[in-house]
Amino acid sequence: MFKNYLKIAWRNLIKNKIFSVANIVGLTCAFAVSILLTMTALFELSFDQFHLNKDSAYQVYLTNQTPRGAETSTSNPVPLASALKEEVPGIKRITRTLSEDALISFNDKDLDLDAEYVDAEFFNIFTFPVIAGNISNPLPSKNAVSITEETATKMFGNTDVVGKVVQVQIGGEEHPFTIASILENTPPNSSIDFDIVIPFENHPEYESNKDVWNSQFHPVYLQLEDGMTPQQFEINSRAFANLHYKGSIESDKRDGASPDENGQYKQFHLLPVKDLHFATFKEGLVDTAHTFPYLILGVALVIIFIVCANFINMNIALSEKRLKEIGMRKTLGAVKQQLFFQFWMESLIVFLIAIGLGLLVSNLLIGPFKTLFVTKATFANVTQPGIIALFVISIFVITLIAGGYPALILSKLSTLRALKGKLDFGKNRLRNGLIVLQFVIAIILISGTLVLHGQIEFLRNKDLGYNKEQVVSIPLNGRKDSYAVLELLRDELSQAPGVLSVSGSDSNLGLGKDGSITSSAMGFDYKGRGLITNALTVDYDYAKTLDIELLEGRMFDKKYSTDSLSLVINESMAKQFGEDDPLSIRINMDDSVTYSVVGVIKDYYFQDVKREVKPLTLFLNRNWDLYYAYVKIAPDNAAQSFDAIKAAWEKIEPQADFLGSFLDENVDRTFKREKTLATIITSGSILGIILSCLGLFAISMLVVAQRTKEIGVRKVVGASISSVALLLTKDFLKLVGLAFIIATPISWYFLNEWLQDYASHVSLSPLFFVAAGLTATLIAFITVGSRTVKAASANPVKSLRDE
């Protein structure tokens, strides 16, 4: 019996070749893309889930009630961790961490590594397994370090290196450290990523700040004791915050800050470690919405839905051609269950073929896919037992609907009615409903694509206040002193054609090839008011190199020996001072040092372009290191100038990698998430439209076949080709129009919400939605019209010949 079902199913698939191929091709494409998208989404959702203590480990952040409103900070003072552990009950373990680059040397080999300065409890809170060396205590002393397996292989060629001594450059000086343990490489789905782990006490800022509470520059993580909740910890820490931040609280009160709903001006909160990857801080709140992976999953699901809707529609339409077959089989004694199983078997065969081909195609595309979407996801993310079980159940349900629905209706027909070959599927309500839903999804995806690309172009073309096209940024990751490197660069490039100026700062603009983004802020009192500013250490010619506009006064100049006590501020900082003449401002930042404002520059985006420009103060302080050099080149022959910069760097720092990049590249890297999202939505839109039109084309073929005789009669009585084509096409276009009416408000709402995350964004013009609707309508018209015009052009004699 089962063999007979298979034979009949296979014959029916061969008989309806066009529809079978359309179904298999559509399902194969949908499954291949959905597998890859699901793989990416599940990889994103797996971030930081491997830590054994993930349910009790948290990052500490502080909410500050300031005169400007609520602000959050994850940067903490050095003494905070030990004080919290001693004074606030409920903390099991606590650790400080700080990510920085570090240059390590062994014999004549140098490596620039991602270093993590941590306390010993770091390895008890987080799960980074030790594969060799001191397993119980990977950092047994202040002069011990742990390195990853990959770092050991790069540096020594093997992992049998426990006990060897390496030189680590810290604060411009080399210090010997003994390798105490070898760690597994950090997983690709870890928010904390490092090559070497160094005891926190070795950080160059540690000694000068170990008892200072107003210098905040590193994160703190803790693990709560069993039974302690984050809410209870927050209550327990209120008295602690009021005690240790008393001076800051008094200053905020004086300047007009309002307490939160609990009467607190400073409140510690805990962010679960498993949400680190998704956390964004805004206006005193933390948002851990998993929007990105869920959106990817959503695109995968709508692609599957569209292709399954096509499959169901075509099965329903094709079933009408099999009425006489059903009537004959019922006459010969077939029961409802047999008919039902036959239809389901045919659907299952198509799905199994498509799944096999989909797996093959996704495997072939995984390399280009990972490159395009910059992801480290693998098939291991989708081969988990729970995911496979869910997939199998979904296939079972879809095939049951696709094959079972028409079978259920057909099996209820009387034998006589079936043999007549006429069936009314309720005026095609299900078919039309699915077509409308398909195009609702397609129009939402198209409008999302247009707005996403519009926003990216808006940010890319936005005036950032500095010259991003002609300036090369270079991380100063070598052995030499940063100021010495800048002077050597100036000397080497002084005769290079096309090189206009050289400068530097302690922070990059955009995201460089080193992947580092840093910022620092400071507060001080001015005329009885507390002010907050971002701080930036720069070298001479900073504004000249970046083409930043000087509004008042001057920039730092070698002619003035006192410029180490001078400040240059931006417009936002000048507004915060509230003085008519900013150049008259004098600031006492401590008891003995007075700084003078000598210049005001125009606001420029020194941080993420997606955020508002904040107050900024530039310092010229040779005691503070520079981490980036900037080289401005002429627009003519930029490639030759870039090569000259690279050659100069290799001469000055022969053992350090050259990681120079143009600032426009750096800015583009900050749009990585938006560009990935745009690519996914665009791909989903294209595939969704193709699949929707594939189904629409197949349905139009069936409709034309059903109305062949009507077409012939209309042509005989004088109907034109255009009138017949319009008659057959308009019903489908009405469905697309209805989809546009439904999709537009939905799309507008979600896109408007998304754009609110940006300080400045593209205007949500109606043209985005009109363009999406017209695109969908045009594609649908071409798809259906190509078939209807062919039918309308046929000889009416041929149309009327067959009964």
From TrEMBL:
What membrane topology does the UniProt entry give? Multi-pass membrane protein
Record has Cell membrane as a keyword: yes
Pfam families the UniProt entry points to: FtsX, MacB_PCD
Q: Does the keyword Membrane apply?
A: yes
Main location class: membrane
The record's subcellular location field reads:
Cell membrane
Q: Where is the MacB-like periplasmic core domain?
A: 22-234, 478-637
Q: Which residues form the ABC3 transporter permease C-terminal domain?
A: 299-414, 685-796
Transmembrane spans? 21-43, 292-318, 339-366, 386-411, 432-452, 677-705, 732-751, 763-784
Q: Per the database entry, which stretches of residues form a coiled coil?
A: none
Q: Which UniProt keywords apply?
A: Cell membrane, Membrane, Transmembrane, Transmembrane helix
Which PANTHER family does the annotation name?
ABC-TYPE MACROLIDE FAMILY EXPORT SYSTEM PERMEASE COMPONENT 2, MEMBRANE COMPONENT OF TRANSPORTER-RELATED
The name of this protein is ABC transporter permease
